[in-house]
Design the sequence.
């Protein structure tokens, strides 16, 4: 029996039953119009390796998008294709290759409505291989209600959103993570934020990039499907090719990604690949790197091109007013102004670790 469902084969959309149908070229204006037509609900893609069904679905935030489904071995596998404007022939073939190269539900995805800041349950991200990811490392840290408000630094972080990279560099105890957590809490809900707390074990490139791509995927669910599949594939792909696929998926995204404790990363290969990611960062994406020492990233070049926002120890030190708030309101002490001034002089405003010995 002839197929009744519209299908794509050899780069052409065929619609059975349509008189005079000469086909619609994928990536054409007619293709884009057909994808966005309310009457269009599904089609099948006939690739060289397999066939899968694409269905139009709806997200509570972000409107309509397309998802690929493949039934194999009694299981239904799912892969995110993208919004209509992103469903190109290249994308259709990428998903086909990923589905063909994985087995056992590797491309299964949760709904794109899944919250990006939910608490982790310790399970591995779908579409990956290896040890389970500790999803609590992808959770934005909470900020105590008694923390010291620092509007001058929040303003500095806000101003940096128009640049590629914000570097927060200072020794332990300067409140880097607390500051970033407070800033993120005040960002618009329309701007997704992802957080990755790094560990020494992330110097393993495969582990680092699995965590990294999973964090990015939380900004735009489904955007990391292809990259995660390639990372888990037995046939290793160059990391730049994997990151290119990821960057293409987030090209229109207005979001923030925070890498905390980046000083723990010593791998030259990771630094070089992250440099590639930064240099090709989409215009509305912003990366924040929190570290105890300057990382071997192209900071000088970014600074020269006005693409670097920097907060350092001199910026993070408490002002006199902030010191008084910290000691008397947060710590519950009742110190005179001259005592606070003496503590500030001796600790040089570094209150996270140094203030207690002087009380």
Sequence:
């Amino acid at each position: 029996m002839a197929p009744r469902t519209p299908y794509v084969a050899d780069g052409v959309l065929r619609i059975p039953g349509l008189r005079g149908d000469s086909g619609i070229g994928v990536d054409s204006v007619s293709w884009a119009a057909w994808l966005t037509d309310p009457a269009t609900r599904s089609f099948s893609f006939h690739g060289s390796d397999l066939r899968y069904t694409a269905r139009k679905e709806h997200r509570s935030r972000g409107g309509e998008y397309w998802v690929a489904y493949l039934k194999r071995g009694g299981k239904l596998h799912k892969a995110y294709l993208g919004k209509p404007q992103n469903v190109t022939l290249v994308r259709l073939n990428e998903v086909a290759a990923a589905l063909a190269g994985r087995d056992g539900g590797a491309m299964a995805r949760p709904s794109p409505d899944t919250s990006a800041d939910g608490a982790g349950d310790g399970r591995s991200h779908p579409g990956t291989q290896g040890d389970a990811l500790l999803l609590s490392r992808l959770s934005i840290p909470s900020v105590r209600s008694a923390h010291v408000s620092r509007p001058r630094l929040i303003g500095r972080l806000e101003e940096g959103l128009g640049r590629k990279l914000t570097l927060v560099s200072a020794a332990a105890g300067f409140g880097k993570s607390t500051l970033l957590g407070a800033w993120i809490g005040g960002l618009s809900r329309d701007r997704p934020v992802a957080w990755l707390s790094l560990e020494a074990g992330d110097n393993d490139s495969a582990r680092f990039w699995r965590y990294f791509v999973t964090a990015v995927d939380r900004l735009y669910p489904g955007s990391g499907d292809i990259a995660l599949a390639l990372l888990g594939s037995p046939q290793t792909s160059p990391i730049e090719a994997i990151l290119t696929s990821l960057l293409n998926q987030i090209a229109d995204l207005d979001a923030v990604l925070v890498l905390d404790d980046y000083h723990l990363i010593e791998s030259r290969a990771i630094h070089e690949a992250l440099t590639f990611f930064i240099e090709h960062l989409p215009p509305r994406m912003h990366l924040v790197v929190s570290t105890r020492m300057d990382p071997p990233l192209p900071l000088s070049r970014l600074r020269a091109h006005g693409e670097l926002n920097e907060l350092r120890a001199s910026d993070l030190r408490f002002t006199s007013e902030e010191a008084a708030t910290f000691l008397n309101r947060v710590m519950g002490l009742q110190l005179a102004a001259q005592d606070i001034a003496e503590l500030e002089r001796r600790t040089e405003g570094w209150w996270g670790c140094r203030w207690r010995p002087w009380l």
